[in-house]
Design goal:
The protein has about 800 residues and is an alpha/beta fold. Among the domains are: about 140 residues, Ribonuclease Inhibitor (Leucine-rich repeat, LRR (right-handed beta-alpha superhelix)), CATH 3.80.10; about 120 residues, Rossmann fold, CATH 3.40.50. The protein is about 20% helix and about 15% strand. The longest helix is centred in the last third of the chain and has 25 residues.
């Protein structure tokens, strides 16, 4: 049956890996080395019994060397050998496989293979064995009577066949056959009772079998596999395959002169055979009229156990109503590629098909596979130009609307699991589409022009693999992936134009129903930005391919995808990963040790701004795929390889070393020192500064005092009395009476003489400056008063800076023990 390559790739790869591992374990101690019999050849032991495999292919040998007697397999392929020396293989009875293809051998003599009594496989294809020129002597294969597989392709150009009577053990035969009349395999084949596989294909040899009749395979009734593809067959008469009751596989593909009507003769002959695989691809004329698959073409197959049916490239446009019901229940897969199907009355019959796999790709491809192969038929087909705009599948809008309006949805074979509609030139929007109850697991509609995905697509609960790649799609509705995509695992969306719509999906609604998907391919979509929540529901995602886009920054949420093992960001425009992106990846890598990211072919930079990113490359637990290929651009515009990121990081550190911290520290220290120094100076000379300030202020308001000589000054008062308010009784009742009234001394008292409106400090400074002396009434109240101490210090400053250190300050201790 047909398997989808994309879906089965991982399983196949795992299988191959196991096989290779097994072979490596078995043969790990056996390595290729020069052969003893010819230094240009390579030999290898294949078992503990010291038997050898010898490879002498492509060594320009002119003759067969004398071989060791323990060789089991020998390849002399692609040399210049023209003769097989008589008896050259005597003593090589262990040899089981011999390949002499692509040489210049022109004759096989009786003793050419003498000694090869156990030879099982012989390949003589692509030599110069011209049958009509006595290239084969009688009993040429006398000494290889145990031979099972013989290949004589690309030698003959006539219908002459060598005498194979001695090869009674032969099971598989590949030969050329060229005839312009009725093709007959005569009584020479009567003794080949074990022959089951005959390959006459023109793909690998020279084949021309113009006419096939009931006599063609008269002596080959036991065969099970028959390949007649590309044999320029023009007529197959009924009865040709009637005797081949054991036939399991028949291939008559690429015989374009047969016409599709010949299918009826073929199926009639096969109705009582053991046929499992029937291939009738490209048997209709390239320029022929569209065909109809009729009931008469296939109704005889109902009696067979057919498993696979291939009818690609036959210009089939419609299927006769009811015809599909005659296909056998054993049928599992059908290949109907490169036809011109249109929707018709036969569509409901699809439900009765027993197949599990259907390929109807390449609709209206104009036989692309045949552009270099045109046969000249005896009676040319009628030619017609088919209007491709009206005949391809789904372009008949009236039928499409009819099926869309069906209550139960689009008909699908009940057991169908795989369907392919690739490269079918479909050009339309995917509307709301309902499938009838089905078991679909794989759908591929890649390489079309399905430009808008509106949907929703419903009733696809079994679907696991969906390929919508290469469709020029630029618009996906948020309801396209309906909740019925519950089991989807693989989603291929590469090579579209989704970069126009995905950045607008800030809520992650497009993929919100794809909760179990494990692989999403969004490469080649011209994506510039991924919204933060685009993959918010994909908790089971394992592989995400965003390669070959135009992404500049990874700013979408990833840390919740704990099962992520592969993130492909190859060939984007990423210069560095943000701290957010690095944290997101590391949070996954700490849980999932297999997380791999590919950043190759990006615009990575290695400078001061990306220093953190380069350091991350060194220490991250994330596996960087092919890191040795990473290139980054340095600050000097040179390209540096990240093969050893530690060296790159050290270089960046040296280039980007900053003295900013040291400069800031030193500057701050110096400023603090200056502030402390200035503060100390200000504190040390605080009274002087205050005095100078107020003196300037006083003189500013009294310009006459600036020009008067200090010795000639006339003072307004004889003395300024500085006292505390608590001592005013003594000053006003005693001191004022004795000094001013009795002594004639003019005193300045702040309660009496300070000018209203001026601030206190200015009044004090002005009073001291305009008084000849200052009398301080010292008491405990005085010492506790701020303004009293201000007056005291201003008086000291006055005596020092204005009176040339004249003692103008008189202390009168009003209390004896005030301290």
């Amino acid at each position: 049956m047909m398997w989808n390559n994309n879906l089965s790739y991982s399983l196949f790869a795992a299988f191959v890996l196991l096989i290779n591992l097994k072979q490596a374990l078995v043969h790990e101690v056996y390595e290729w080395k020069a052969c003893c019999f010819a230094s240009s050849c390579l030999c290898k032991n294949i078992s503990v019994s010291e038997q050898l495999i010898a490879d002498c292919s492509g060594k320009h040998l002119l003759r067969i060397p004398r071989l060791q007697n323990n060789i089991q397999e020998l390849s002399l392929r692609n040399n210049n050998i023209s003769t097989i020396q008589d008896g050259i293989f005597v003593g090589n009875s262990l040899l089981t496989t011999l390949d002499l293809s692509f040489n210049r051998i022109s004759q096989i003599r009786t003793n050419s293979f003498k000694g090869l009594t156990n030879l099982l496989s012989l390949n003589l294809s692509n030599n110069d064995l011209k049958y009509e020129n006595r290239s084969f002597e009688y009993s040429a294969f006398y000494f290889v009577e145990n031979l099972k597989n013989l290949n004589l392709k690309r030698n003959a150009n006539t219908s002459f066949l060598p005498d194979l009577w001695k090869l009674r053990s032969l099971e598989s035969l590949s030969i050329d056959y060229v005839s312009d009349s009725i093709s007959i395999f005569n009584e020479k084949f009567a003794n080949l009772k074990n022959l089951t596989s005959v390959d006459l294909s023109g793909f690998t040899g020279n084949c021309k079998m113009t006419i096939l009749t009931e006599k063609t395979f008269l002596f080959l009734s036991q065969i099970t596999h028959l390949n007649l593809s590309k044999c320029k067959i023009q007529h197959i008469f009924k009865g040709t395959f009637t005797l081949l009751t054991n036939l399991l596989e028949l291939d008559v593909s690429l015989n374009t002169c047969l016409r599709f009507e010949t299918l009826e003769s073929i199926t009639t002959d096969l109705q009582h055979s053991a046929i499992k695989n029937l291939k009738v691809n490209y048997i209709h004329g390239i320029f022929g009229m569209p065909t109809i698959l009729k009931t008469s073409h296939i109704w005889n197959l109902k009696n067979t156990s057919l498993v696979r049916f291939e009818a690609a490239g036959n210009l089939i446009q419609r299927i006769e109503y009811g015809a599909l019901k005659y296909l056998p229940k054993s049928l599992e897969s059908a290949d109907m590629r490169d036809n011109v199907f249109s929707i018709g009355k036969y569509m409901p019959d699809l439900r009765s098909l027993p197949i599990t796999s259907l390929d109807i790709s390449n609709i209206r491809s104009s036989h692309n596979v045949l552009t270099s192969y045109i046969e000249h038929c005896d009676s040319p087909n009628d030619t017609v130009i088919i209007d491709s705009e009206n005949n391809w599948l789904f372009q008949q809008l009236q039928y499409l609307e009819m099926w869309k309006s069906l209550k139960y949805g689009f008909p699908v074979p009940r057991g169908l699991k795989t369907v392919s509609l690739r490269s079918s030139n479909l050009k339309y929007e995917i509307p709301n589409f309902i499938f009838i109850k089905n078991q679909l697991e794989i759908i591929s509609v890649s390489d079309n022009v399905l430009h808008t995905w509106t949907g929703p697509i419903t009733n696809v609960k079994s679907l696991k693999f969906l390929d919508l790649s290469s469709n020029f799609c630029s618009n996906v509705s948020k309801k396209f992936f309906s909740p019925d995509f519950v089991n989807l695992r693989y989603l291929l969306l590469q090579n579209n134009l989704l970069g126009l719509i995905l950045p607008t999906d800030v809520g992650g609604e497009i993929f919100q129903n794809l909760r179990d998907v494990v692989y999403i391919n969004l490469s080649k979509n011209r994506i510039t930005n991924i919204p933060n929540l685009l993959f918010q529901k994909q908790l089971n995602l394992e592989r995400l391919d965003l390669s070959e886009n135009m992404i500049e920054e990874i700013n979408f949420k990833l840390s919740h995808i704990k099962k992520l093992t592969s993130l492909n960001l190859r060939n984007n425009r990423i210069s560095t990963l943000s701290q957010y992106a690095m944290n997101e990846l590391d949070s996954i890598a700490k849980i999932n040790k297999n997380l791999t990211i590919d950043l190759a072919e990006n615009n990575l930079v290695c400078n001061c701004d990306s220093q953190t990113f380069v350091e991350w490359i060194i220490y991250t637990p994330t596996i960087l795929h092919h890191r040795e290929e990473y290139e980054c651009k340095t600050s000097q515009n040179t390209i540096s390889l990240l093969r050893n990121p530690s060296e790159v990081y050290e270089t960046i550190q040296k280039e980007c070393m900053s003295y900013e911290g040291l400069i800031i520290g030193l500057t701050t220290g110096i400023l603090i020192f200056i502030f402390i120094l200035c503060g100390g100076i200000v504190y040390r000379y605080r009274w002087k500064l205050r005095y100078l300030y107020y003196m300037v202020k006083v003189k500013w308001h009294d310009p006459e005092s600036k020009s008067v000589n200090k010795d000639e000054r006339l003072y307004m008062y004889d003395a300024f009395v500085s006292y505390a308010n608590e001592d005013h009784t003594f000053v006003h009742n005693t001191l004022l009476h004795k000094l001013e009234k009795n002594g004639g001394v003019q005193l300045c008292l702040h309660r009496r003489n300070f000018l209203p409106g001026n601030d206190i400090a200015t009044n004090i400074t002005s009073a001291i400056h305009n008084s000849r002396k200052t009398i301080v009434i010292m008491s405990s109240n005085y010492l506790a008063s701020y303004w009293c101490m201000f007056e005291y210090n201003m008086s000291k400053m006055e005596s020092i800076y204005e009176r040339n250190c004249e003692n103008i300050l008189f202390l009168v201790f009003y209390e004896q023990n005030f301290c």
